Amino acid sequence: MAAQEIRPDRGAYVRAHAWMAAIGMGGAMAVLWIIDSPHIWTGAIGGLAAIGLRGWYMASEELAAVWILTRESFSGPAGRSVPVTQIEAVKTMGSYVQVVTKGGDKHLIKYQADPAATLNAIERAKA
Predict the structure, then answer these.
(1) Is 35 helix (H, G, I), strand (E, B) or coil?
(2) Contact 111/8 with Cβ under 8 angstroms?
(3) What angle do CA 93, 98, 102 make, to 5 degrees?
(4) For the purposes of burial, counting CB atoms within 10 Å of the CB of 1, is it exposed (0-12), middle (13-18) or buried (19 or more)?
(5) Which of 67, 94, 107, 123 is the most buried (most CB within 10 A)?
(6) pTM of the entire structure?
(7) Does the residue 4 lie in any domain?
(8) What is the DSSP letter of 108?
(9) Same domain for 79 and 122?
């Protein structure tokens, strides 16, 4: 098996932030409703602005995270490296894939266009 690069997908990144914005907008509006504010609609603007700013600010860092999968190791950003033999479990969560080691360490591969394909590639490397 040749080394396989696992990269984040811009579309998955935008979709994840759209969901976060919707939840943030609803949550902020709910808080303003609970405290009986006459300006509940400002929660929607604040939630959208907060997540939009976060998405814009973090995009270059999040979309540059590359994981390399070989038969021997799974390595990623910030010098993270896991021998494939030490991978205990692989799970999907939305557009994320979580790798759990036998030692209990957890690594999150974010914003995958096809999380099931990423999970399957890791499982194939383990076999």
Answers:
(1) coil
(2) yes
(3) 140
(4) exposed
(5) 67
(6) 0.85
(7) no
(8) E
(9) yes
